[in-house]
Amino acid sequence: MRAFIFLDCVWIALLLGFSGYLYHEGSSRAALKEDAARIRKELASIQIALEKANREESLAVGESVPFSVYGKYLDEGSNRLREKGLDPLGNAYGNQPSVGAPRVPALSVERLRPVVGPDFWMPYGVPDLD
Fold it and tell me: With helix as H, strand as E and coil as C, how does the chain read?
């Protein structure tokens, strides 16, 4: 009888541990999806900032624009974005093209690949990681 109770406790502990693992996996995927959505929203803000910088700074077509230039024109976004030019995963947005869609940081695309596909990033530029 004692062995039976002990084995029941072991099985319950294993099941609770496994369900905790599944919960953690699901919650981390959800957090990554939220980060991906934030990056898309920030890319829209960066695109507006680049358009403003183009008008104010008379940038050349095809010019690579550093964050120090387009960052001045960011009206929206977190302090992390406006002050440091970092995405929610801590990767720098870096230089962006003066005309066209801003690019997603390569490290962020790689990190978020398990939860969002390449179509998610359209119309923004995605580095070729293959």
Answer: CHHHHHHHHHHHHHHHHHHHHHHHHHHHHHHHHHHHHHHHHHHHHHHHHHHHHHHHHCCCCCCEECHHHHHHHCCCCCHHHHHHCECCCCCECCCEECCCCCECCHHHHHHHCCCCCHHHHCCCECCCCC
